Amino acid sequence: MKFITATILLVLLPFSVFCQEVKYINTQNAKEDFDFLIRTFEEVHYNPYFLHSKDTVFSFKEAKFNDWLQDSIPVRQFLADGMELTSMMSGGHSYMYWNVPSIINEIRAHEFLPISGHFAKNQEYFVVDRSQLEEIDVGDTLHSINGIPAADLFHKTMSLIAGIEAFRAAKCETMFPFYLFFCKELNSPYELKTSKPSLVKTRGVSLNEIADFVNEKAVPENYTFAILEDSIGLISYNRCQNYKAFKKFLKKTFSEIESKSIDKLIIDIRENGGGDSSLNDLLLSYITEKPYRQSSGRYWKVSQNAKDAYSSASVYTRIFGKKFMNAYMSEPNGSVIEELDGNLQQPIKSAPFFEGKTCFLIGPETFSSANFLADAIKTYELSTLIGEPTGEYTNDFGEQIKFVLPNSKASVFVSSTYDIGASGDASALHPVRPDILLEEQVLGYAKEWIKQ
Predict the structure, then answer these.
(1) How many domains does the chain fold into?
(2) From residue 79, how far is each of 60, 64, 87 by CA, in Å?
(3) Could you list the residue range(s) of the whole structural domain that residue 374 is in?
(4) Tell me: the pLDDT tens digits for 282-295?
């Protein structure tokens, strides 16, 4: 099981009009929180310095300390620096959460830019994919905001998001207008320089409006089925959640596939951020009889923080068993439990079994348990993968636990295990690569491919 990385649910914030009063944190308290954060990562995480060396992380910390020259600093600045610090340590399952009570009123009062897009590869400009500003159209290029190059702003917002570059870029494309809030030098009114001759001047929109804008791209349902053409079915598997509901969904879906003589099936996991990996076994039982494994084991870092988290959540005992949890609790803090398994899993054939042709669509937001699924498919050739590389390495960190910084009260999530991919190579550091690499029109291509 791998827990999902928390998404940003702006709709959870109550919307009202507030004065934009800047909140501060005592500088010494901020420094203590940074030291506490790093110390906790070192205690809980299997390898917090696999992306950046310890010297690099500590140099970043000291540079921030040197920037904090006053007796107190804005909470907004502290959170931005904290998110960047945690993004340097570990992968996408470890991060600082921005939702701190002291900053909420400031977020509510902020005016946001309702535009999002992507940073053109090998180029120095930002391409607009969505816009609510009449003066800016989809396809326009954004060069600067209030005189700050859009490229710098995009890379700054990416630095606040944890994970490998492809995953961070994909998340930033959606969350760009919200994360601009943490660029402290950027406030309304805005002047935007685009590919058009004249400057665009705007005040921005409310949190309520930007929440609607951001959530337009949110996938509403965990899984759906559609018939694209008479012989092609499409399963959109968007979240690995709710085992019982997914079991019913699959039974109904494959019964319909059989009754309508559908012999080609596309399974889209490009939006799947993970959850419970056991749902993947359910799905595979309908389409393959080949032995496989989603993971070859994991290393559990033993720490008091993790012991406290595991003992307070019954889900760990339910999934991993009372025997293992008791063994974990008895191990000394700082040790590592190796839980490796070289055996393959023989799927139990489900009925009605699908005998036709399949392919899976993957991309940079295929993450966590969905990444497990893609890795198993790739390693054991269970189907064909089409799209872009996934947003996580095949070996990555999971089972996140939460702790709270003592002074700022910011919540931080940190991984407590190192999960080894389907191949069993613990040294591999690469995402799942598709069999057919494609960046655009992926579904359209898959439809034509599966017909052939």
Answers:
(1) 3
(2) 15, 12, 12
(3) 219-296+344-392+431-452
(4) 999 999 999 999 99
